[in-house]
Amino acid sequence: MKSINYEGQVMAEHEQEYLTFKLKDEEFGVDILYVQEIRVWSTVTELPNKPNYFKGVINLRGVIIPVIDLRQRFALEPLEYNAQTVTIILRSKDKNQVAAIGIVVDSVSDVYKFDRKSVCPAPEFGCHIDSCFLQGLISIDEKLIILLDTEKLLAQDELYSINEKNKDLEGID
Prior knowledge:
Blueprint: E1 2-4, E2 10-12, E3 15-23, E4 26-31, E5 35-40, E6 54-60, E7 63-69, H1 70-73, E8 86-91, E9 100-105, E10 107-115, E11 120-121, E12 134-140, E13 143-148, H2 150-154, H3 156-159, H4 167-170
């Protein structure tokens, strides 16, 4: 079975495209089918009593979208936003679940098409490292790209939870 990608090219069923972006010095990827749009960083409406990585909400054509700083959510040091900083709007593919979120990233890198068989599963880290968002790893041009599980990024229980092992890293405003 074949499917058509966003550029009108025919893709085999076992291929998948990922939008990649930078956080610190690492490259991450999300399934491009979840990407609604990419926006330059703009201010958000802040809400009270929230984790520090939750930046606030934006009104996107009449829909209120929560925005998180993925760098801070992954316990990396905050970075001052600049002209390269973007917000990627992700939307669930499930028609029964109307979930959308904006993730703030350092910059957008590229779009890659991978054969699903070439994705290495994420290693087990035990209970000391939170790997709930990891889907796997792929090697491209002698670099590793960390593939994120986009469904888990959209799952509010996972995204906004502050569990005991992360509490010291994340902080609350």
